[in-house]
Structures are given as C-alpha cells and as structure tokens.
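Ticket reopened. Same input as before:
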Amino acid sequence: MGESAPGQLSTTARLAAALTGAAVLATRGAARIVVPLGHVALHPPLVPERLHPGRALDALTDRGREALTSTGSDLHRLVAAVVPIVVNEVLDSLDLNALIREQVDLDGIVATVDIDAIVAQVDVAAIVSRVDINAIVAQVDIDAIVAQVDIGAIVDRLDIDAIVKGIDLDAIAERIDIERIIARVNIDAIVAGVDMNAIIGRIDLAGIAEDVINEIDLPEIIRDSTGTMASQVVREARMQSIDADEAVARLVDRVLRRRRARSTTAPHQPAPPSYDGPADDELPR
Amino acid sequence: MTGRVDPIPKEARDFQGRRAGLVTRVAAAAIDVGVTVIALLLVYAAVCAVVFFAPPRGFDPPTPPPWLAVTALHVALVLYLATLWNRGGRTYGCHLMGLRVVDRKGRLLRALPALLRAAFCVIFPIGLLWIAVSRANRSVQDVVLRTSVVYDWDVRPQVRATATPDLS
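Engineering reply: fixed in the latest deploy. New output:
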C-alpha cells in the first residue's frame, strides 16, 4: 500500500495538469471566438455609433474612474483639516528652543556659514538708499530724549582742562575771519541797546580826569599860559637849587667814600583834603 | 573826588617831602637875612624921618653903635624866623625856594620849638654846613631840635601840630 500512494499522487497530478491544459486550450479557443463576437456585439455594424452598446460601456468605465478619483480628493481634504491641528498640538507640547539647543549643533552650523560671502553679496548701498532717513528722524521725539539726558552728570564727568589743553587756540584764531564777522555785526543796533547813562554812571570820571590832568601836567600848561615871568624864574631857581643840592651831596659822599645813597625822606603831614587850592596871592610870582 | 590835581610840576614831584640840601637852604637863609636887613633899614629910615621932622634945621641922622645894630639884626631875625615857622612853616626865603620847616612828625613847629630853632640858627649859622655831611641832609639845629626842612612846593597851609594825629 505504501508504494501505491505516490503512484496515485502522480497520476492525479498528471490528470490535473492535463485538465488544466485542456481548460487553457478551451479558454483560448473560446476567447478566439468570443472576442470578435463581443466586439461585434458592442459595436454592431450598420448601427450609428452613438447607439453602440460599447459606448455605454465606456461611459460606465469613466464613471468608475471618477469614483476612484473622488475618493482621493476626500482623503486630501481630510489630511488638510487634520494635519495643522495635529502639528499645532505637537508644537505646543514641545519646547522647540530647548530641543534645538540640546539636539542641534548651532556652533557647528554657524561655523560652516561663510559670513564674508554673505556680507559680500549684500548691497549695502541699495539698502541704505531704500531707507527713508527723514521719515525715521521725523518719528524721533528729540525733546523727550534730551529731557532724559542728565547734562549735569555728563558735564561733571568731562575733564574740561584736558580738553582745553588739547585745543590749539592759535590755530583756531588764525582760521577765524574777524573782519568778516565784524562786517556782519550791526554796531548801530548794539549801541542803540546800550544804556550809556548807566555805563557813565559806573565810571569814575573824576578819577580819570585827575589822572589825565596829572599825566598831561595841566598845571604846567596853565602856568605857561597864565603865569608871569617871575613865577617862571622862581621855578627855575628852585629846580636849579635842587640840582645843586644833589651835586653837592654826591660830591661830599664821593669824598667820604659813601656807598649807600642818602636817606632824605622826612615825615610828611599831608594837607587837609578839604582845601581846594591856594589863593592867587599865595602863589609865587 | 578821590584825589586831587597835583599842582607840582612833574620834574619836582619826586623831591617833595625830602629834606632839602645845602644850596637851597643857604639860599633861603640868605634871602631871609636880606629881608630882615631891608626891614631894619626901613625902620632906620622911619626913625630918621621922625628925627628930621622934629627939628629939621639941626637934623643929624642917628648913628647907632655897631653892637646895637648887630643885636637888633639878630633879634629881628629871631622874631622873624620864629613867627613865620610857627605860623606857616616857611619864611619868605623858604617860600621862594619851596621849603617848609616841620617837626619830627612832619607837622608845624610849635611856638617854643620855633623860637629855640630861630635863636639857634641866628647864633650858630655855621651849623647849616652840617647838611653837606649829614646822610639825612640835617643841619646841627635839625639834629638837636629834631626838626626837618623839606622841599614842599605845595602852597597849601600846613596842619598845626596840636590839631593832627600822630602819623609815625
């Protein structure tokens, strides 16, 4: 019995294979017959094309394809609606900054960046030309900024002496066109605003007059214009006698071999200030 | 006014207040002697006039003895000098030569010092020569009586000693 089983199996297999081959041959033969018949059935001759059954079959095929396609669009809409919500929830639950700091080698990334090349490609002039400086300045509240500046503290920190020492005042003065500045000054307007009476009131005119009179030797002028010959003779005699006194003193001191000059200053009692001057008969004539 | 116009010529201002030298003081003294002599001559002329008009026919001008003349001259000089030094600090000779006699504090002499100084000067006139030798242009009379004779061309009157404070 044991030897008969494999023989039965191979027989069965052979039978199956034979049947299969017969089926394939039958199918192929049927196909050779059915396909032309099917074509004639779907597209019968002498029938207008719009009435062909194949046309209806094609229409059904298109509707099936559309159905498949419509199923894909729904999937896209579903994904578009769900993904943003999911992504937002995920991002909210994550600390991306910490995550990037921990997981990303920022220094390594930055080291690979050629900053020079980037800067070289930047057209700074174009950027600057697009900046509206006037608009920026117009929005700046200069008064508010200045009000917040502590000028006193700044001035206290300045070393004025050092600054002044570093300034070449001579060079500055040489560059100043004094004549041009003076030409632009309205002297008349300045003088018109000056209170001359107040200035004159502060000036010691009497003292100035006395100094001038003493400097120009007014008594001498008066004597020359009004004095007599006798007063001139007396004055000359006095001066000559003084010269003679000096000469005698020098001679005696030289004979006595004195080195120091004489001390001839005597105690002096000034005349009373209320006295206004001598009477005419007191003057030497 | 804070000051005053100085009436002194510029060339003489530096000498004002300094003790005068020998020449100026001798000249002033000579003028004073001449003034006194002239005054005595006028007195003598007056006496002669009185004598002339009393008995004109027997007029004989008086001839005083020399001692009287010399004494009169000395007395007249002493009175003349003392009076003017006490009143204004200057005689006519001092006035012409621009001098003034002051005491040790620069004030006018009082009556007694003025009289003593006048008598000393008349009796011992040679003491004036000490000015040339003195370092301070002082005569013997100045040294003894502690006075000074200074250049002072200012004609304003000097303050009297009894009315002024001590400036030394």
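Residues 161-168 of chain B have pLDDT under 50 and may be disordered. DSSP finds seven helices and two strands in chain B. Please confirm and we'll close it.
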